[in-house]
Write a structure and sequence with these properties.
There is one protein chain. By secondary structure, the chain is an alpha/beta fold. The protein has 3 domains: 9-147, Resolvase, N-terminal catalytic domain (Rossmann fold), CATH 3.40.50.1390; 164-269, Hect, E3 ligase catalytic domain fold; 276-532, no CATH class. Helix 10 (331-343) crosses helix 13. Strand 10 and strand 11 (306-315) form a beta hairpin. The radius of gyration is 37 Å and the shape is flat. It has helices at 27-40, 61-71, 83-86, 90-101, 119-152, 180-191, 197-206, 219-227, 253-266, 331-343, 349-396, 402-431, 434-452, 456-467, 486-491; strands at residues 9-14, 45-51, 77-79, 107-109, 164-167, 172-175, 235-238, 241-244, 284-285, 292-301, 306-315, 329-330, 471-474, 477-480, 499-500, 515-516.
Length: 532
């Protein structure tokens, strides 16, 4: 054991969470080893300093303070596990060597590295610092290269957004089956234009979609992470660019675009409260064509000392050609009239049930009719794939030259792409109406419950779907002309035993055909030809 007292030293231990520090001893292990080493070597320790920060760039506060204290003469040496604990960048490494040159540092002690303040010792120390920096730089470059490769494969590097999870087995991002439905509903709610971003945050929190610290998402986090994040329709942001992803989209691009339109319209006013004038913008004046607006009046009742605020709707009277004198109408009365309007377009539950059963039969019929066609096309694609492999083998065996190989390959790929598009177009064309039809039946069946309920937001959305911009208010009476296919509900017969003879598939005249009992067998003039 060395019995000669050494320079007074700081004991410095450091570890960060960076990749290059994954194999380094923990802080506790470093301290234990360094204390034992200092006692064995009779090193005088002024103070133990612990830092949990990366040394890749300058700016560590504890390290900088230690350097200042050494320059002031408080100590003249450092004990650390390895030189890379002191510096992994050229600035900090150069500062240590400079203090050695000026005599401020007279001793650097490492259990696994020899150093003496000699030309050879300083050269070896500089080499060690250089190796540490090279390791960090090369590791960073390798990491970036790996990330760029993931991007080329369509995999977004980093943490999956809400509604998705990082799969550690496949190293990909997959849908979180528990939270994904609520993320999709959040998009649908916001696209209606009747919900604030705070409402979306509350909705998600209600269903367990919250931040990592267990709090409700902030407004800007909701907007950036979810509502404006292209990841949800199949693309992703990386390094300031948009890239195509291989992950499964959560929402359709059309729905995402609708959300962006709403965002542009309303992003300037998220701090405002949701307007209590809920039906503003829904009606036009029947006399002059201007929009119906709302205003609030407060009335004080002396007998009960109550103050009540009422909302009235009236014409904006902005027409320069017509002098409008339409009267006010209370919101309660307007709500009652809107309820009556909606109820006229509610689909009966027994009809909805029967129509959904018919739709299920349509799905089965289409699946049977289209099966043979799709099998034929897919077999053709499979045959082309085999030909491509044979062509490649011939080229590799030098049976054909490069130009011939390229021409024949391009032709086969073109044929394959044509077949794939035919399949995609065929599936879309022959089944595209089923989903919207099923959705409409469910919406129409739910109109009655919306009309009876007290959710005015839901009533407004339903009215916009049914009437569009054709709702008018004149002489304190609300009127509206329904759009297709809603108009057919009001014109439909009232008997529960009526249905179209030709089934429910789309035709040039949606409601043509004889009226038959519900239990009548479906009759087609001619079976549909799905092979054209």
């Amino acid at each position: 054991m060395n019995t000669v007292p050494s320079h007074p030293c700081f004991l410095y231990a450091r570890k960060s969470t960076d990749v290059e520090d994954m194999q380094v001893l923990s802080i506790e292990s470093q301290l234990a080893e360094l204390r034992e080493y200092a006692a064995r070597e009779n090193i005088s320790i002024v103070e133990e300093l612990v830092e949990k920060q990366s040394a890749k760039i300058p700016g560590r506060p504890i390290f900088n303070d230690m350097m200042d204290r050494i320059e002031s003469g408080e100590a003249s040496g450092i004990v650390s596990w390895h030189p890379d604990r002191l510096a992994r960048n050229s600035v900090d490494g150069g500062k240590i060597i400079y203090l050695v040159d000026t005599g401020k540092i007279g001793s650097l002690k490492f259990p696994q590295f020899w150093f003496e303040p000699t030309p050879q010792g300083k050269f070896m120390l500089a080499m060690s610092f250089g190796q540490s920096k090279y390791f960090v730089d090369s590791l960073s470059e390798n990491t970036k290269r790996g990330l760029r490769q993931k991007v080329r494969l369509g995999i977004m590097p980093g943490v999956a957004p809400p509604g998705y999870i990082n799969d550690p087995r496949s190293k990909t991002i997959v849908i979180d089956k528990l939270k994904a439905p609520f993320i999709k509903q959040a998009f649908e709610l916001f696209a209606t234009g009747t919900h604030r971003i705070m409402d979306i945050a509350d909705f998600l929190a209600k269903h367990g979609v919250i931040s990592r610290n267990g709090k409700v998402w902030k407004q800007h986090r909701i907007s950036y992470l979810i509502l404006t994040n292209p990841f949800y329709y199949g693309h992703f942001r990386y390094a300031g660019e948009i890239h195509e992803g291989k992950h499964e989209p959560l929402v359709a691009k059309q729905l995402f675009d609708q959300v962006q339109e709403q965002w542009k319209k309303r992003s300037h006013a998220w701090h405002e409260e949701l307007p209590v004038k809920i039906y503003t913008g829904l009606f036009h004046c029947g006399a002059c064509g201007m929009m119906i607006t709302a205003e609030q009046k407060t009335k004080f009742y002396k007998g009960t000392n109550r103050t009540v605020t009422y909302t009235y709707y009236r014409c904006t009277r902005k027409s320069k050609e017509i002098s409008c004198r339409e009267s006010f109408i209370r919101e309660e009365e307007l709500d009652r009239q809107l309820t009556n309007l909606l109820q006229k377009y509610a689909l009966r539950q027994d009809w909805a049930t029967a129509m959904l059963k018919k739709l299920e039969l349509e799905k089965q019929d289409i699946a049977q009719s289209t099966g043979a066609y799709l099998v034929t096309k897919r077999e053709a694609i499979k045959f082309i794939t085999i030909k491509l492999q044979r062509l490649l083998d011939s080229y590799l065996e030098e049976d054909i030259d490069r130009d011939d190989y390229r021409d024949r390959k391009a032709k086969l790929l073109s044929e394959k792409k044509t077949l794939e598009e035919q399949i995609s177009r065929f599936q879309t064309t022959h089944q595209s109406w089923l989903g919207p039809m099923e959705q409409w039946v469910k919406e129409a069946a739910g109109i009655a419950e919306i009309a009876r309920g007290g959710d005015k937001n839901a009533k407004k959305v339903a009215a916009q779907n049914i009437f569009g911009s054709d709702l008018t208010l004149e002489n304190r009476l609300a009127r509206g002309s329904a759009r297709k296919p809603w108009a057919a509900l009001r014109a439909a017969p009232t008997s529960r035993k009526m249905e179209r003879m030709k089934g429910i598939e789309p035709s040039s005249q949606p409601w043509e055909g004889r009226i038959l009992p519900l239990n009548h067998t479906r009759i087609h003039n001619k079976p549909p030809d799905y092979t054209r």
